[in-house]
Amino acid sequence: MNELTTEVVIAGAGPTGLMLANELALAGVDVVVLERLPERTGLSKALNLQPRTAEVLDLRGLLGRAEERSFATVPEGHFAMIPVSYASWNTRHPYQLAIPQVQVEAALEERLAEQDVEVLRGQALTAFTQDADGVTVTTSDTRIRASYLAGCDGGRSTVRKALGLPFEGIDGRGHGVVADVRFAATPPGAQSEWRSMRNIVTTDGIGKYTGLIPLSEPNLYRLAYGDRLNRPANLRAEVTDEEVRDVITKTYGEETKVEEIRWASRFGDDSRLAASYRAGRVFLAGDAAHTHFPAGGQGLNLGIQDAMNLGWKLAAQIKGRAPQGQLDTYEQERRPVAEAVIQNVAAQSALIPATPELLALRTIFRALSELPEAQHHLSGLVSGLSITYPRKDKDHPATGTRLPDFKTKEGHASTWFHKGKFVLLTTQPTEKPHPEVEVAQVDELPWHDVTRALIRPDGYVANTTGETKSWLA
Ligand SMILES: Cc1cc2nc3c(=O)[nH]c(=O)nc-3n(C[C@H](O)[C@H](O)[C@H](O)COP(=O)(O)OP(=O)(O)OC[C@H]3O[C@@H](n4cnc5c(N)ncnc54)[C@H](O)[C@@H]3O)c2cc1C
């Protein structure tokens, strides 16, 4: 048995684990990342980064790497396959960045390697124990002693199961399939390049849906189809080429010729949320903590933002600068966000009509969704832009909201966050109040009645007084 010692062990090198590892490494925390698979599969479930995730990556100077690997920008999202514009939001990134999940992982792992952290591949966490001082994690050939363990090991999380945490939610009845298909020519009605969410997916009014999203090569598409009322006996059974070809012929006609089916996978529509995100020295993040039907393209985005929230708090705890209770705010802040996503996914599922009544409801909902306020509300839900964290009644309304990435003399506010520290924005010359706080003097702040604001490393407003003691010990 090999023996290793570190500060944090992360199980899982998906988007969540890799983002968390980056955040910890940036803060100077020693981290070991374990990945069960010997190499990346090259297959992508997710295809997008939502606006808030683009902002979050920009806060760390990581967005450029994602942009280089992206194949389109789409100026809207969708709610139950009804397009919702991002234009009403005060953001520099009012679009979905089209990027395969595997490329998000590659970008994050590239930055991680630059921080001298290597992913240990072919190393599945098989068991762990914890005591008052730390955790001991075991793989097939290695034992690692650490202060903390983060389970970022996906929906079937070994870490969550070992903790015995309930994983309950809404039982789905249906299933979906995704398949990457290359056609001989652009299929009828499909976009040749991904430019909009309009007519991407259609429903038949009895619970079934089918859609085509153009990918990065000519005539290569992500085919998605499903039935929200029926699921096969074995959800993990292989999706045959015959099944995929049959759906294509029925939906797009005999003349739509398939040249290649690269891969296909089936998934369920259950929603589950871990009863707790923390048990002692062990945390859950990403799909290990929450899973749901991929409506609206939100899961990977949730995971990256979980990692951002946990990263700076865990680093502060390890470095001895976290005030009492700060680490518990990870669950207090992020679990309600996942709960809200699970609710919006449930609403989206209901709007895939399974009865004539629901079809009528969808028609009215679609008309109402055109109203500017409805567009703003729905796009806020799926984009992550409407996420706020709790504030007290006496606090300024900006408290707990995201800092808009406003223009500064040198560029944009996001650049101040590249080191992952707190930033004190002030209109007056101000001494550094704490070694972990960057001071940025500006002519004016985004709120007319605020002259000082302490911003957290994840870009949310801590307070509008500049007080640091309750945030940094
Ligand atoms: C069909 C489909 C389409 C989707 N589309 C979108 C979309 O468009 N947009 C979006 O935002 N989300 C989408 N999602 C959701 C998204 O793919 C997930 O939310 C995302 O992968 C979660 O990332 P994660 O890092 O938390 O978990 P995962 O990506 O599951 O990564 C977990 C990692 O942990 C590893 N692992 C597992 N067990 C162990 C162990 N014991 N030890 C060590 N390593 C382990 C796994 O090999 C894996 O690499 C989609 C999901 C599906 C099923």
UniProtKB/TrEMBL annotation:
<keyword id="KW-0274">FAD</keyword>
<dbReference type="Pfam" id="PF01494">
    <property type="entry name" value="FAD_binding_3"/>
</dbReference>
<protein>
    <submittedName>
        <fullName>FAD-dependent monooxygenase</fullName>
    </submittedName>
</protein>
<dbReference type="InterPro" id="IPR036188">
    <property type="entry name" value="FAD/NAD-bd_sf"/>
</dbReference>
<feature type="domain" description="FAD-binding">
    <location>
        <begin position="6"/>
        <end position="344"/>
    </location>
</feature>
<keyword id="KW-0285">Flavoprotein</keyword>
<keyword id="KW-0503">Monooxygenase</keyword>
<keyword id="KW-0560">Oxidoreductase</keyword>
<dbReference type="InterPro" id="IPR050641">
    <property type="entry name" value="RIFMO-like"/>
</dbReference>
<dbReference type="InterPro" id="IPR002938">
    <property type="entry name" value="FAD-bd"/>
</dbReference>
<dbReference type="GO" id="GO:0004497">
    <property type="term" value="F:monooxygenase activity"/>
</dbReference>
